[in-house]
Design a protein that fits this description.
14 strands, disordered C terminus, 6 helices, five-stranded parallel beta sheet
Length: 232
């Protein structure tokens, strides 16, 4: 009991330390990640002892109560794990998370798919291992039995499909910034375009008129030649 209370106080202190919007342990009691972590610890004990159905029921209830934090009872979580916001976080059955790890919302630590996992040996790890003090950014996806080393930073929106060495940084491409032209610039472009179109049209008309005149002159010369040669 004393150990459980010590872990609970540790969890509250971590929330206060890593979430600037939380200013006290009392306020940390309402953090969405807290019931997910506490319920998972109980569910994991039941799962390892063979009470799989009760463990999965607890995980399901925790998911409903926390707005979508889904941690499989078989996953192993270290101490002082912090899940910020928590919406749509998924942690698979054979995933392992080290100490002092931070997960932001919409993080997935999943498998690559049943069509490949079904061919693995029974008991083989299918999900990632995350080292101590790693930070997994918003919307990051880590798939398969890969290892994310200690002190790794996985940036928001990244897709990780291979091992990441300790201390590395994984960053997704940032969005390109495209500036829209101002209204005056668009109008000037349209005016220039209309002027160019008018000039092109006039040039085409001039060319067409010139061609017609040349054809008439050729026909007139031909008629004169035929008339003077007595062909009529």
């Amino acid at each position: 009991m004393r150990r459980t209370m010590a872990r609970a106080r540790e969890d509250l202190s971590v929330i206060v330390a890593r979430d600037p919007s939380i200013r006290s342990r009392a306020e940390a009691l309402l953090h969405p990640a807290l019931p997910a972590l506490w319920t998972h610890r109980l569910a994991h004990v039941l799962y390892t002892r063979g009470h799989r159905q009760i463990a999965r029921l607890l995980a399901y209830l925790a998911r409903a109560a926390t707005g979508g934090i889904e941690i499989h009872p078989g996953a192993r979580l270290g101490r002082r794990v912090f899940i910020d916001h928590g919406a749509a976080v998924v942690v698979g059955e054979t995933a392992e998370i080290g100490d002092d790890v931070t997960l932001y919302h919409q993080v997935t630590l999943g498998a690559v798919g049943w069509w490949r996992d079904g061919r693995r040996e029974p008991g083989t790890r299918r999900h990632p291992v995350v080292g101590d003090r790693a930070v997994i950014g918003t919307g990051a996806i880590v798939l398969g039995p890969v290892t994310v080393g200690a002190d790794v930073l996985v940036g928001a929106g990244s897709l990780v499909l291979s091992d990441v060495p300790p201390g590395a940084r994984v960053m997704a491409p940032t969005a390109a910034i495209v500036l829209r032209p101002r209204t005056e610039e668009r109008e000037n472009r349209e005016d220039r375009g209309n002027g160019t179109d008018r000039k092109d049209q006039e040039n085409h008309e001039d060319q067409g008129n010139g061609t017609d005149r040349e054809d008439l002159e050729d026909a007139d010369r031909l008629l004169r030649a035929l008339a003077t040669s007595g062909c009529w």
